[in-house]
Amino acid sequence: MEALAPYIGVYNRDVNSLTDKIESKFVDLSSDLPHLPTEFVAWLARWAWLIVAIVGVLYLFDALGFVTLANDFGYAGFFGDASFTSTLYLAAALTAVYGVWYLVAVPGLREHRRRGWQLLFYASLVQVVMVVVVVVLTGLGNIWSLLEVVVLWYLLFQIRPAFVASNEPE
To answer: Are 23 and 137 in contact (CB under 8 A)?
Structure first.
């Protein structure tokens, strides 16, 4: 494992650089958007951890729903092949990943740490990947999923200063 340490360090540095660039682009984009009232932003930043915990648990239930749906379609031979069922299983896996990611972000959000905010942002990026994968593999689009992520990004970048202001390095 020690032999891999230099490579892991380079990989982490590259990934951090990429995610910092993505975050920076979103900061630039969000600066031109209208701002929410200061009191609401403070309230949202204070209770973000609880909201995210509830939504994370709901996403895990959503993932179980995808699995149940895939099982039902698989047994019924729906669409005549396994590609739709496989896509549902993939959607379940990705939904579970960002649901867990939401839950992992909760302690950092509760303590108003930048890392908690970042984890939630990264989870939203996984959500976009899931929506794109489902659209590409099934041809079925869900505009509501994309709208959900756009609203999340808007709110995330409204509360970002409360988490970046912590004593953690930017």
So the answer is: no
